[in-house]
Amino acid sequence: MSSVQTRHRVIGLYKELIRLGRDYPNPGYNFVPKVQAAFRASAGLTDQKAIDEKLALAEHVKNETLALISLSKYRYLRRTYCVPIKDTIPDVSLENTNK
């Protein structure tokens, strides 16, 4: 892959991670500054193999973050709109079964 293509891929992935950071469920984790620091630390890489490894790691972080955000939204919707399970199960005690 040429350096121009790699550069565009890195910038695109960086922008995606920054956008995902807006929806990160735990604001105390400081997701965006950590992404920025990780990309700054890898800015001087010139070896294509090392760059590809870092890009693979960033893709993995992106996928895990998407899963975490989706899970957080699902849990919020479930808490908001679903009936608690304990209210739907009838109360059956062992005393009534041995008549």
UniProtKB/TrEMBL annotation:
GO terms for biological process: negative regulation of oxidative phosphorylation; respiratory electron transport chain. It comes from the Eukaryota. GO terms for cellular component: mitochondrion. Residues 9-59 form the Complex 1 LYR protein domain. InterPro entries: Complex1_LYR_dom, Complex1_LYR_ETFRF1_LYRM5, ETFRF1. Coiled coil: none annotated. Belongs to the complex I LYR family. PANTHER family: ELECTRON TRANSFER FLAVOPROTEIN REGULATORY FACTOR 1, GROWTH HORMONE-INDUCIBLE SOLUBLE PROTEIN-RELATED. This is Complex 1 LYR protein. It comes from Phaffia rhodozyma (Yeast).
